[in-house]
Amino acid sequence: MSQKGRVIDLYKTLLHLGKDWPKGYDFFRDRLKKAFLKNKDVSDPEQIEKMIKHGEYVKKEIEALYMLKKYRTLKRRYEL
Amino acid sequence: MSRVLVGVKRVIDYAVKIRVKPDKTGVVTDGVKHSMNPFDEIAVEEAVRMKEKKIASELIAVSCGPAQSQETIRTALAMGIDRGIHVEVSAAELNTLQPIHVSKIIAKIAQDEKVDLVIVGKQAIDDDCNQTAQMTAAILDWPQAAFASKIEKAGDELTVTREIDGGLEVIKVKSPAVISADLRLNEPRYATLPNIMKAKKKPIKKVTPKDLGIDISPRIEILSVADPPTRQAGAILPDVDALVAKLKEGGHI
């Protein structure tokens, strides 16, 4: 996949993850869009690569956050 | 290599605040976010890991419920299950559908599909019954390993670590068996976008309890559903005498 394709893919994946965001999808989408737009003029492939890596990291963090939130809620509810 | 059947239930999302209907017949479900029962997610994850370790050959997910239950099956398919079976139960029938009915359905499907292992979540977060796995094992006359926190396979035997009061119990069961997943069995994966797309192409078979020859006529009648009592506000007392007087008044001493 081209670098551009990968950026779009990352954006879509993050948008998808945002649907479960605790503060709501709109909150997440606004922030996400701002974060991507801030770097829209970057053209150095190496730097873009770095940013994609960071995006992948954020993706993993969000997944971990959701998992932990669910785990903690269940633990609190069922293990007193 | 074995075939694994996983039971998944569609429940109100764990993060949603449950509201009781004013007429006390049940809880509000219209327009409320639903998702897969978290314990069933753990069961699905365990089955998918078995397939990745090449212990399992085919994974089947089964869900009993209205048409929207298909979404729950799709989630399971997106996590890595191969195909789904949707047992259609109308929303009205669902209110009185109990673990006894569900376990009969699962037992029948387990026999029809010739599965070697049934994995379900230990309980659903809506009715908290915690009966389906045990009843399914009883109906099939298979060994059961409820509240599993670790599953290891050796030959046609499974070594299961169970979470019991105050500790862990390690048992050995022969396949075919029924396992129910506890909270610490694994950490379920998040269904990725591409996998959700791919899951749309996986087959879901639709059957009715009647097709399976299972009677789901109600065995209970729901009389009333109520909120748990709200906690009373605390009070700060000036001294010990006041506290003793208050406790006596409440009949605690």
Automatic annotation (TrEMBL), chain A:
UniProt GO cellular component terms: mitochondrion
Q: Which domain of life is it from?
A: Eukaryota
Pfam families per the record? Complex1_LYR_2 (PF13233)
Q: Which GO terms describe its biological process?
A: negative regulation of oxidative phosphorylation; respiratory electron transport chain
Stated family: Belongs to the complex I LYR family.
| Protein name, UniProt field | LYR motif-containing protein 5
Q: Which organism is it from?
A: Nezara viridula (Southern green stink bug)
List the taxonomic lineage.
Eukaryota, Metazoa, Ecdysozoa, Arthropoda, Hexapoda
TrEMBL record, chain B:
Q: Does the keyword Cytoplasm apply?
A: no
GO MF annotation list: electron transfer activity
Localization per record: Mitochondrion matrix
Every Electron transfer flavoprotein alpha/beta-subunit N-terminal domain range: 24-216
**Pfam families found in the cross-reference section:** ETF
Kindly indicate whether the keyword Transport belongs to this entry.
yes
Q: Which UniProt keywords apply?
A: Electron transport, Mitochondrion, Transport
Source species, domain of life: Eukaryota
Q: Name one GO biological process term.
A: fatty acid beta-oxidation using acyl-CoA dehydrogenase
Give Gene Ontology CC terms.
mitochondrial matrix
**Where would you say this protein principally sits, based on its record?**
mitochondrion
**Gene3D superfamilies registered for this protein in UniProt:** HUPs
Protein family (similarity comment):
Belongs to the ETF beta-subunit/FixA family.
Q: What does this protein do?
A: The electron transfer flavoprotein serves as a specific electron acceptor for several dehydrogenases, including five acyl-CoA dehydrogenases, glutaryl-CoA and sarcosine dehydrogenase. It transfers the electrons to the main mitochondrial respiratory chain via ETF-ubiquinone oxidoreductase (ETF dehydrogenase). Heterodimeric electron transfer flavoprotein that accepts electrons from several mitochondrial dehydrogenases, including acyl-CoA dehydrogenases, glutaryl-CoA and sarcosine dehydrogenase. It transfers the electrons to the main mitochondrial respiratory chain via ETF-ubiquinone oxidoreductase. Required for normal mitochondrial fatty acid oxidation and normal amino acid metabolism. ETFB binds an AMP molecule that probably has a purely structural role.
The subunit structure is: Heterodimer composed of ETFA and ETFB. Identified in a complex that contains ETFA, ETFB and ETFRF1. Interacts with ACADM.
The name of this protein is: Electron transfer flavoprotein subunit beta
